[in-house]
Amino acid sequence: MSNVNWIERGEIAKQWVLEAAEHIKKALASKIHVEAKSNPDDLVTDVDRSTEAFFYEKVSTHFPSHHFLGEEGISENVEQMDGTVWIIDPIDGTMNFVHSQFKFAISLAVYHEGIGKIGIIYDVMAGELFQAIEGQGAFLNGKPVQKITERPLEESILGLNARWIVEDRNPYRRELAQLVRDVRGIRSYGSAALELAYVASNRLDGYISVKLSPWDYAAGIIILKETGCCVTNFNGESLSLLKGGSVFAGKPAFHKEVIKRYVGRER
Amino acid sequence: MSNVNWIERGEIAKQWVLEAAEHIKKALASKIHVEAKSNPDDLVTDVDRSTEAFFYEKVSTHFPSHHFLGEEGISENVEQMDGTVWIIDPIDGTMNFVHSQFKFAISLAVYHEGIGKIGIIYDVMAGELFQAIEGQGAFLNGKPVQKITERPLEESILGLNARWIVEDRNPYRRELAQLVRDVRGIRSYGSAALELAYVASNRLDGYISVKLSPWDYAAGIIILKETGCCVTNFNGESLSLLKGGSVFAGKPAFHKEVIKRYVGRER
C-alpha cells in the first residue's frame, strides 16, 4: 500500500462525485421524499440515501478492503482509522437542498492510516469543485485556489450560524456573541462543508460551529491543510474522525487569536 | 411617455449591466483601492465609483431627461420620484467584493412616476442575472424563477445578518433573536440585493434588515412584486425610495406573521 498513486485515485473519486451530482440533479426533477432525523430541523431525503448507496457501491466494488463511513448510516467497521477509510456526506446542507436546491454539497474524504489523502467538496448547483490531494495543493475547478491573506480580527469575515448566539443551552453563547461584535462581518451559507472550502479559498477568514459530525469536516480538513489554514476543536486540538464536536477553521493568526481570546480552554 | 417600451428598455439596461460586470471582472486583476465611508466597515473602492460613473454616463447620454441616484454619490435632482429615475448600486456587497471577489452584485432599478418598471440584480461572479419588467414576471438568466412555495414559520429559512442580534443599540434585538430561535434556519450572504433576489426565487422564505438604503432594495422591490412576495418596512408600510430604513421581504403569509408577531408596531 505504500506505493498507492493518490493522484490517480483522486481522479477516480472526482469522477464518482461528478456522476453522483448528475443523479442528484436528475432527482430534483421529481418529488423528493423528506424525513426528519434527530429533530424536526435535521432532514434527510431519499436522495441523500440513494447517493450514499451509490458511493458505497462504487467503493466496495473497486476497493473491497476499504472501510466506509457515511452520514446516512452506512458504516463498515469504522471504530478506528486503520487502513483506508472513505468518509462521505452525500448531501451536506440538506435543508438548503430541500428548500431551494441551492448551496448544498457532496463531501468526500479518503484517509489512509489516519492521514488525509483525498478531499473533495462539490457545490452541485454552482458547479464548483474544491479538491486536494495530500501535498499537492488545493484546487477549485482545476485551478489553484485563491491564496489566503491574513487580516486583523476586526477586519475578518467569519462563517457562523446565528442560531448559536440565541440558544441558551449553548455554553459558548456569550463568547460567540462577543466574537460576532468584534469581527467585520458574519456569513452563513447553510453547508459546513462549503464554508470550510470557503475558508480554504480565501472567501471567509474563518468558520466556527459548536457541533459538527466527522462527515461534515473530513474533506474540509484535507483541503484546509493544503492551503495553510488551521482546523481544530475549540481548544485547538486535532479533530476526531470517529466522533463529532466543536470545529473552528481559520487562517493561522485569526485561528490562534480566536482560540486564545474567545473559545479556548485557557481563555 | 405613455407608450414607452419597457421590455426594450430593460434589454438595454441588461446589456449595460453585463458590460459593467466585464469592467469589474477586469478590475479584479489589478490592485483595488479601498476606503472606509461612514464607519470602518462601510467600504468603497475605486471600482464602485468607476462602475457608477459608467452607468451615469450611459443613462445621461441615452436618456438626458432621466434622473439618477447612485450609492456612491452621483445624484441628479432626486428629491422626489417624478419622471424616470434610475437607482443604482454599482457593487452591492462591497465587503465581499474587497475580501474575496465572491457574492457581490450590481443592482439596477428604473422607476417611472414612482412605479417600478425595470429591476435587475446580477451576481457578477456566479453569472446569475435576476430580472423583472413590471407585469412580465421575474426571470433568472432568461428563465422564469422558481415559483415560491409557502411554509409554516417554524420551517422557514430567513436571511438575516447576525450583527443585528448582538448590537445593544438595535431596538429590534430581542424580537429578531426570538425570530432566529423560531424559524428553521438563518442564512447570510453579505449582499442585500442578492438576498432579496433569493426571496423572489424561493431560495429564502424571507430577508430582514434593520437598516438599508434605497439603492440596496430599489431593484429587489420590482423583482419581488413580480413573484407575489411582499416587501415593506417593519410596520408593513411601503418602502421609501428617497430615504432608507428597516426592510422585510418575504412570502406573503410569512411576511404577515413576522410583522404581526415580531417586528410590527402593533405586535
Please outline what is shown here:
2 copies of one chain form a homodimer. With 267 residues, chain A is an alpha+beta fold.
**Shape category of chain A:** globular
Unreliable stretches covering 5 or more consecutive residues of chain A? none
Q: Main beta sheet of chain A: strand number and arrangement?
A: 8 strands, mixed
Strand proportion of chain A, as a percent range, falls in: 25-35%
CATH topology of the largest domain in chain A: Fructose-1,6-Bisphosphatase, Chain A, domain 1
Rg of chain A, Å, rounded: 18 Å
**What's the pLDDT, averaged over the residues of chain A?**
94
The CATH superfamily of the largest domain in chain A bears the name: Fructose-1,6-Bisphosphatase, subunit A, domain 1
CATH class of the largest domain in chain A: Alpha Beta
Helical content band of chain A: 25-40%
Architecture of the largest domain in chain A in CATH?
2-Layer Sandwich
Total domains of chain A? 2
Number of helices of chain A: 7
Q: Biggest interface between protein chains, with counts per chain?
A: A-B, 37 and 38 residues
* Secondary-structure element order of chain A, N to C: HEEHEEEHEEEEEEHEHEHEEH
Tags for this model:
homodimer; 267 residues; alpha+beta; Fructose-1,6-Bisphosphatase, Chain A, domain 1; D-Maltodextrin-Binding Protein, domain 2; 2 domains; five-stranded mixed β-sheet; globular
